Amino acid sequence: MARGGNRRYTLLILLWLVGLTAWRVLSAIHANVELYGDEAQYWTWSLHPDWGYYSKPPVVAWVIWLGTHLFGNSELGVRSMALILYPITAWTLFLFTRRLFRSSIFSNEPAPDAIAFWSALVFITLPMTSLGSMLITTDAPLLLAWALAGYFTVAALETDRWRDWLWLGVAVGFGMMSKYSMVFYGLGLAAFIVVSRNHWRLLASPKPYVAALLAFLLVLPNIVWNAENHFVSIHHTAEISELDRSLFHPKALLHFFLGQFLVFGPITFGWLVAVALRPRLWLTDARMRLIAAMTLAPLASFLILSLLSRAFLNWAAFTYATGATLVAAHLLRQGRRTWLVAAIGVNLALGVAVYNFHDIAHLLDVQLTRKTDPYGRITGYRPLGIEVGRRLAKLPGVHFLADDRMLYALIRYYGRPYSEGGKFLNPSGKLDNHYALTADVAAQPDGKYLLVSKAASDERVKSLFNEVETRPDIRIQPYPDYTMTFKVWLVQGYHKP
After folding, report:
1. By C-alpha distance, which of 117, 108, 240 is closest to 180?
2. Domain ranges in the chain?
C-alpha cells in the first residue's frame, strides 16, 4: 500500500479515538453518574498504594491514584484513567494488527493498515469499551496489557530478539498485576504454538521461559503481599468462581454465552462465533491462527467455567482485544466490510444508550424507576455520604462505622473530608473484604463512632457496644417508587459477642 494510504488510516484512527474520547468525557460530565461500590472501594485503595489488596492486584488502585492526582477526586477524576487507557489500548491494537499483517514471518497482506484501522475501530466502539470507559475497573489496564503482549508476541516471533521477548514478559507481568486473568495469555500463546508446527522450536528456546520468569518476578511483590495477608486474593478468587459447588450448570452456560452478545456486540459476537465454528478459516493462516488462539482458547475456558461453576459476563472481556482483530480481519478478507460498518453502527448506538439513557428517557417522557433505570442500583449513595459527612462535622472526634463493604466505600468517598478514619464493623472476624483486613473496629474498640447500617437492629448493636445512642434515620428517595432507609447510632466501647 502507498505511504499516503498508510498515513490516511493512521490519521483516521487517531481522529476517531480523539473524537470518541471527547464525546465520552463530555457525556460522562453530563450524565454525572455516581460511583458504584467497587469503584469507590478501588478509590479507597488508591489512598494507600500497596503491592496488593484483598480481591485484586494493585494496578487499578495505582491508576486511580494517578488519575486523581492529575484530575482531582471527582467521579470523573476517579474514572479518568479508563477514558485514557481504552484509546491507548485501541492505538496499541492498531500497531499490533498492522505489524502482524506486515510481518515477514507471515505471508504478505495487501492492506495491513486497513485491517489495523478497522480492528481498532471495532474495539473502541464495542459495548464493553463504551461502558468500561464510563467506569474504572481492572479491565482497563488489563486490556492494555493484553494488546501490548500481542504486539510484543508478534515482534518476538518475527525477530526472535531477546529485547522483544523481555518486553513480552513485562507486558504479561503488568497484566498480571492488573488482573489475574492475564494468566490466560499464556494459554493462548501455548495453543498457538501447539497448532503451529513451525513454531515448536520455541519449546526448546530459553527465551519464552525467560520472558515468563520476568513476568513472575514482576508479580512477585503481589505474591509476597498475599503471603503476608493470609493469601486473601487467592481465597477470594476461588470463592467467587464457586469451584466447590456441584458441576454442570447449562443455564449458567447459556446465560454467559448470550451475555457475550451484549459485551462484544450483537453482530460482532455473531461473527466471532461463525469464525470459531469454521476453523479452516484460521488454521491455515499463521496470522489468523495467532489471533484466533489468543481469543478463542481463553474464551473457551470461560465457557467451560460457566458450565462447571459460574463466570461473570465481563470475565472474558480481555479476549476481545484480539477478538476485534479476528472479526475485522476475517470480514475484510471476505470482502464483507458492510458487516463491519453495520456492527460498528449498532455498537455505537448501544454506546449512545449507555451514555445518554437519562436524556433519551426524558425526550420520550418516560418516568424512570429504580427497576427501569440501568443506574438504579448505584443511585442515592451520593446524598447518603454527604449527609453522613454533615453529621460527622458536628461530632468532633467521632468517626463513621459501617458493617457493609460497599456502604463503607461509598460513605468514605462521598463523606469526604469528614469520613477519614472510618472503621468496619466485623463481629464475625471473617476476612471477607479489604476493610475487614485493614480497618476492623476491633483494632480501636474504645473509639467513638457514628454507625450507619441498612440491616442492623437495635438489639444487635446494643449487644456489641457498651454505649449506644440512637440517632435519626437517614432516608434517601432517589426514585418515586424507592426509598433507602439507613439506621444510625452513636456508639462507643466495642466488644465482640
Report:
1. 240
2. 3-357, 376-494
Q: Look at the alpha carbons of 149, 151, 153, 159 in this order and tell me if their dihedral is positive or negative.
A: negative
Give the residue from 295, 301, 269, 311 showing the smallest Cα distance to 188: 295
pTM listed for this prediction: 0.94
> Which residues are within 8 A (CB) of 36 and not within 5 positions of it... i.e. 6 or more apart?
135, 377, 378
Grid cell, residue 264, equals 462484544
For residues 265 and 346, the answer to whether their CB atoms sit within 8 Å is: yes
The 10 Å Cβ neighbour count of residue 236 is 18
One-letter amino acid of 448: K
Q: Which long-range contacts (CB under 8 A, 24 or more apart) does 478-484 make?
A: 478/370, 478/376, 478/379, 478/380, 479/368, 479/369, 479/370, 479/373, 479/376, 479/379, 480/367, 480/369, 481/369, 481/370, 481/371, 482/369, 482/370, 482/376, 484/380, 484/384, 484/454
Mean pLDDT by 10 residues, the chain (497 residues): 68 97 96 96 97 95 98 97 98 96 60 94 97 96 98 96 98 97 95 93 95 98 94 77 68 93 96 95 92 96 88 91 96 93 97 92 92 93 98 97 97 97 94 94 96 96 97 96 96 91
Write a three-state SS string for the chain: CCHHHHHHHHHHHHHHHHHHHHHHHHHHHHHCCCCCHHHHHHHHHHCCCCCCCCCCCCHHHHHHHHHHHHHCCCHHHHHHHHHHHHHHHHHHHHHHHHHHHHCCCCCCCCCHHHHHHHHHHHHHHCHHHHHHHHCCCCHHHHHHHHHHHHHHHHHHHHHCCHHHHHHHHHHHHHHHCCCHHHHHHHHHHHHHHHCCHHHHHHHHCHHHHHHHHHHHHHHHHHHHHHHHCCCHHHHHHHHHHCCCCCCCCHHHHHHHHHHHHHHCCHHHHHHHHHHHCCCHHHHCCHHHHHHHHHHHHHHHHHHHHHHHCCCCHHHHHHHHHHHHHHHHHHHHHCCCHHHHHHHHHHHHHHHHHHHHHHHHHHHCCCCCCCCCCCCHHHCCHHHHHHHHHHHHHCCCCCEEEECCHHHHHHHHHHCCCCCCCCEECCCCCCCCCHHHHHCEHHHCCCCEEEEEECCCCHHHHHHHEEEEEEEEEEEEEEECCEEEEEEEEEEEEECCC
Here the cell at position 48 is 494507600
Q: What is the end-to-end Cα distance of the chain in Å, rounded?
A: 75
